[in-house]
């Protein structure tokens, strides 16, 4: 292949690097009003009265909207396929607030400063309601969502947003016949995406009265649908434009600022701009769901897994976007690496009066693999066997069915799925060599600094089977270039480049000949959006199909122009066996102007009932200061099977970018709250993300496999590498000092307490 | 937000007595912390920016920013022991270009390695208030405007620092600077605490309980938080003091 698998510069690289106006905030529209949000100081309260008279009296205030300005219509902020599997429990500006930071009113003013000043003058009378901050107590607490009209909530009275169950075989019987039984309960905290660019939206009405929404989103088509629903404005009159995005990681798979901004524009007729502050990003957007996962594993005398049960408790916070589907991925991934005949999983997602959790890179899988890979390590230690060999012994093999996928879909029924490619064993072997597993030596036992080594594995998906759909449109230009129009959303990942590479490979041209335009609901075809590691697999499939149709048309035109049957394509020429040839440029020009006139163009859609799993093995070396409990990660080796690698440079970037996020989850990142449920670490001085100063040595490599259902054999690479670093570090800490911690984050004090 | 531009530091001090008036002398990031009701007294042009880093004396104008200090020191005296503390207190060169020494001290950021270092070496502050005076950094009660920071490196045999943070870029939970001077060990202990505490003990009087006693005294400003309980932090201080003391003795060649 000439383009696939080659390091290719990003198609948007120069514009980004030279500071061109590519982001939402880089565009300004005359006469814009600026929006600020009044947020609840209470974790749970009924709004009795809102007095906005003094605030409206401030010069420069244009309008103030509260719940009284909207009908009681319930929707979900989750940008998912329709009908959404998330509960419809959210109202734009509700009369009840359910966490500290919930939206009470929005102010539009001539400047941000005036809007801020006005917010301070709005007087709200609240009736305080009981609040609960513990997921374990949620089912016994008073209902957060008793209102009628809300749909999709599993059990309103018990605060259960969602529930799942799946079972294959007879786990209890298998346990009774097992040689060994192991159990453990593991928990993870709220973690924030901390993407560079905050949520930001700019809306305006054009000359035809159509609503334009320029916004930092991963899901432009879902934005259009949900804005239309919430504002009761026709889809045909809404255009959503996604410019370059400064990171999303799932946080922008939510419709947050778009509805508010649109409401202001529709009410005032003026352009409106809403940009959240960093502080708001922390407590008022979305985060990773805290989960408590209890696992039980049975083994036979050959250390093969006979059965496993899992019980998942998930904290959604005050509302339930993605509650079911994140938990479904947790459940699916627990049973997606190791082969077993009997399993059962039960999951409950519950409401609490805390900030809202939703999609975050990995989407439930990081929680699953922290639990599973910790317990696998504990079993290997207990049985005195090599953790790598123990894992390898239990892996699914090529051709195996993945029973969990049949038993449990992602928010709807499952589909039969098989392992068509699996390089995990090779990943483990490659990582074993690169980390120096067999040569690794622990520290002198008398030293206060103890070194340890650990391993963990993981899997993810490539899109959502049976749900995700993408489409692409390609047309040829008379200089031999091609316009590629895709609904797929590049959120900083480089997917526009990867899709250009796929098109270029099929069309036999250089990537520079592909002009990509993505994510504009007026101009590009539909795509469910950039989430679930779907772009390369699902959107890439659509691009490949469209390009194949275009190449057929080029060949047909070539046959006609050359008047010969047997033709092929080489170096941007259609060439006949006789040696006669016509260039792409001439072929397109003739097609436009002189002979057999037509526009060479094609569109294609793609969806799949498969979601092939990429795999990863991550190894970690840590140092533990046994006098203080502080942990330093010295080295990470991350080996991924993402099928055929489309763009090595960008794939390495995906892996390298995911590692600090996972290390943060295990060691330094967690949202903290006071006794009233108010988040207390809402800045980067108190919320500690890994920076370049903190990074260990990283080695990234790939094991290429050929996934038969994928475009050019490529599986996803976006989420898979985030899952395993955390459990690898946890296992390395145990290896270093014998301390096993099952509840993240690992603070130094926890290490010291366990050590004692 | 309103700006006031006094013509002298004395005038600035008088203005500061008015309600909702605060000094302003640093970078734009400070502005984000102020609300629209504030009056900012801009003393930027009134402050001394000069830096003198010799082997005899370190003297820093309160308006000098952290990066200026590093650049100047690296040219004149790259062994200046304050440099590493400045680098770790503010790892970003960009932010170091905005933060002034005077602001660093005036804001009393107890987790700043610069403050623990200056406390350990007992730096002197020149202050403008009702009158001009000099005072030890350990005794300053935040009244007045700092114009100059100085200390004498020649009386210090050795300096050692120790910090504990969850990751290097995070502010320290505990940070300690220690000096060995005229047979005495002096420690300044900061971190996530309400106050930096100073402790002095003659090396000859050091015994196996000394670090525990110092930790007990120092823990009073610390509080329980999600990174650890006070009792854990007490043990952390004890470990840090012991390590600093061992390093000081090793560096001074007494081992």
Please provide a written account of the structure.
The complex is a heterodimer of chains A (756) and B (255). With 756 residues, chain A is of the alpha+beta class. Chain A contains 18 helices and 29 strands. The longest helix of chain A has 28 residues, at 535-562. Chain A folds into three domains: 24-129 and 199-275, Aldehyde Oxidoreductase, domain 3, CATH 3.90.1170; 287-464 and 610-755, Aldehyde Oxidoreductase, domain 4 (2-Layer Sandwich), CATH 3.30.365; 469-607, Aldehyde Oxidoreductase, domain 4. The termini of chain A are far apart. Helices cover 27% and strands 24% of the residues of chain A. In chain A, strands 3-5-1-13-10-11-12 form a seven-stranded mixed β-sheet, with helices on both faces. Chain A has a five-stranded mixed β-sheet with strand order 7-17-16-15-8. Chain A has a four-stranded mixed β-sheet with strand order 19-27-28-29, with helices on both faces. In chain A, helix 16 (648-668) links the parallel strand 28 (631-641) and strand 29. Chain B is an alpha+beta fold and 255 residues long. Chain B folds into two domains: 46-154, Uridine Diphospho-n-acetylenolpyruvylglucosamine Reductase, domain 3, CATH 3.30.465.10; 156-251, Enolase-like, domain 1 (2-Layer Sandwich). Chain B has eight helices and twelve strands. Chain B has helices at residues 9-15, 66-76, 82-89, 93-96, 101-106, 113-120, 210-218, 230-251, and strands at residues 2-4, 21-24, 39-42, 51-53, 58-61, 124-128, 132-136, 145-151, 158-164, 174-181, 184-191, 197-202. In chain B, the strands form three sheets. A five-stranded antiparallel β-sheet of chain B has the order 4-5-8-6-7. Chain B is globular. The N and C termini of chain B lie far apart (58 Å). The A-B interface holds A 113, 116-117, 627-628, 630, 667-668, 670, 672, 681, 685, 688, 690-691, 693-694, 747-749, 752 and B 36, 91, 164, 166-171, 173, 225-229, 232, 235-236, 239.
């Amino acid at each position: 292949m000439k383009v696939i698998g080659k390091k290719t510069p990003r198609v948007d690289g120069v514009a980004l690097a030279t500071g061109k106006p590519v982001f939402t905030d880089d565009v300004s529209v005359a006469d814009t009003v600026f929006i600020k949000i009044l947020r609840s100081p209470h974790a749970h309260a009924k709004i009795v009265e809102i007095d906005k008279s003094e605030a409206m009296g401030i010069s420069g205030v244009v309008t103030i909207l509260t719940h009284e300005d909207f009908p009681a219509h319930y929707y979900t902020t989750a940008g998912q396929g329709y009908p959404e599997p998330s509960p419809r429990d959210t109202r734009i500006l509700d009369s009840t607030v359910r966490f500290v930071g919930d939206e009470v009113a929005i102010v539009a003013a001539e400047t941000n400063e005036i809007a801020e000043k006005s917010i301070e003058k709005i007087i709200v009378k609240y009736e305080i309601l009981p609040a609960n901050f513990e997921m374990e107590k949620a089912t016994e607490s008073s209902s957060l969502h008793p209102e009628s009209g809300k749909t999709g909530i599993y059990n309103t009275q018990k605060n259960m947003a969602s529930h799942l169950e799946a079972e294959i075989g007879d786990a209890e019987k298998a346990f009774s016949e097992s040689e060994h039984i192991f159990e453990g309960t593991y928990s993870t905290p709220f973690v924030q995406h901390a993407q560079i660019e905050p949520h930001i939206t700019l809306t305006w009405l054009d000359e035809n009265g159509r609503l334009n929404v320029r916004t930092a989103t991963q899901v432009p088509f879902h934005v259009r649908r949900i804005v239309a629903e919430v504002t009761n404005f026709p889809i045909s009159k809404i255009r959503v434009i996604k410019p370059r995005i400064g990171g999303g990681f799932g946080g922008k798979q939510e419709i947050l600022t778009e509805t508010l901004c649109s409401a202001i524009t529709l009410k005032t007729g003026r352009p409106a701009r809403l940009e959240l502050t960093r502080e708001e990003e922390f407590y008022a957007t979305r985060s990773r769901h805290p989960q408590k996962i209890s696992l039980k594993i049975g083994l036979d005398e050959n250390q093969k897994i006979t059965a496993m049960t899992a019980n998942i408790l998930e904290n959604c916070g005050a509302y339930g976007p993605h509650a079911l589907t994140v938990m479904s991925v947790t459940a699916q991934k627990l049973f997606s690496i190791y082969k077993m005949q009997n399993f059962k999983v039960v999951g409950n997602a519950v409401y609490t009066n805390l900030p809202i959790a939703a999609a975050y890179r990995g989407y439930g899988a990081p929680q699953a693999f922290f639990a599973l890979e910790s317990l696998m390590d504990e079993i290997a230690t207990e049985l005195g066997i090599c953790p790598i060999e123990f894992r390898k012994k239990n892996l699914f093999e090529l051709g195996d069915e993945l029973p969990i996928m049949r038993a449990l879909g992602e928010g709807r029924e499952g589909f039969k799925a098989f392992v068509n490619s699996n390089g995990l064993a090779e990943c483990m072997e490659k990582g074993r060599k690169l980390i120096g597993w067999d040569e690794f030596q622990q520290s002198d036992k008398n030293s206060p600094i103890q070194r340890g080594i650990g391993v963990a594995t993981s899997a993810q998906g490539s899109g959502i089977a049976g749900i995700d759909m993408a489409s692409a449109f390609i047309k040829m230009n008379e200089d031999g270039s091609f316009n590629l129009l895709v609904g797929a959303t590049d959120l900083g990942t480089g997917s526009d480049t990867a899709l250009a590479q796929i098109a270029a490979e099929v069309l036999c041209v250089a990537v520079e000949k592909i002009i990509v335009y993505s994510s504009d609901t007026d101009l590009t075809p539909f795509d469910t959006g950039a989430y679930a590691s779907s772009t390369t697999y699902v959107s890439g499939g659509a691009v490949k199909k469209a390009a194949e149709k275009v190449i057929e048309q080029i060949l047909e035109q070539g046959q006609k122009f050359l008047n010969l049957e047997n033709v092929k394509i080489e170096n941007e020429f259609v060439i006949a066996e006789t040696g006669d040839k016509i260039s792409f440029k001439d072929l397109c020009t003739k097609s436009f102007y002189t002979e057999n006139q037509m526009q060479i163009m094609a569109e294609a859609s793609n969806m799949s009932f498969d979601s092939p799993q990429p795999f990863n093995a991550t190894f970690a070396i840590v140092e533990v200061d046994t006098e203080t409990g502080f942990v330093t990660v010295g080295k990470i080796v991350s080996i991924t099977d993402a099928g055929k690698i489309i763009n090595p440079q960008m794939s390495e970037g995906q892996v390298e970018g995911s590692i600090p996020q996972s290390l943060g989850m295990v060691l330094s990142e967690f949202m903290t709250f006071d006794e009233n449920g108010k988040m207390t670490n809402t800045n980067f001085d108190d919320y500690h993300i890994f920076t370049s100063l903190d990074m260990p040595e990283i080695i990234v490599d790939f094991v290429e496999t050929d996934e038969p259902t994928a475009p050019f054999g490529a599986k996803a690479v976006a989420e898979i590498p985030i899952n395993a670093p955390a459990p690898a570090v946890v296992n390395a800490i145990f290896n270093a000092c014998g301390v096993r911690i099952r509840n993240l984050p690992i603070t130094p004090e926890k290490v010291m307490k366990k050590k004692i | 937000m309103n700006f006031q531009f006094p013509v002298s530091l004395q005038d600035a001090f008088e203005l500061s007595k008015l309600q909702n008036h605060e000094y302003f002398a640093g970078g734009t990031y400070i502005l984000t912390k102020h609300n629209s009701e504030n009056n900012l007294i801009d003393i930027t042009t009134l402050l001394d920016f000069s830096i003198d880093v010799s082997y005899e004396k370190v003297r820093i104008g309160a308006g000098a920013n952290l990066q200026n200090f590093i650049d100047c020191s690296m040219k004149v005296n790259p062994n200046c022991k304050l440099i590493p503390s400045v680098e770790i207190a503010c790892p970003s060169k960009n932010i170091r270009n905005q933060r002034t020494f005077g602001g660093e001290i005036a804001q009393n950021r107890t987790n700043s390695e610069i403050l623990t270092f200056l406390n350990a070496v007992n730096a002197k502050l020149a202050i403008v208030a009702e009158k001009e005076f000099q005072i030890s950094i350990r005794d300053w009660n935040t009244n007045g405007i700092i114009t100059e920071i100085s200390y004498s490196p020649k009386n210090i045999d050795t300096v050692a620092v120790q910090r504990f943070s969850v990751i290097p870029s995070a502010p320290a939970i505990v940070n300690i600077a220690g000096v060995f001077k005229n047979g005495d060990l002096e420690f300044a202990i900061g971190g996530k605490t309400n106050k930096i505490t100073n402790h002095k003990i003659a090396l000859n009087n050091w015994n196996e309980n000394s670090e525990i006693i110092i930790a007990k005294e120092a823990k009073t400003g610390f509080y329980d938080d999600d990174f650890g309980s006070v009792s854990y932090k007490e043990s952390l201080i004890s470990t840090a003091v012991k390590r600093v003391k061992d390093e000081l003795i090793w560096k001074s060649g007494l081992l």
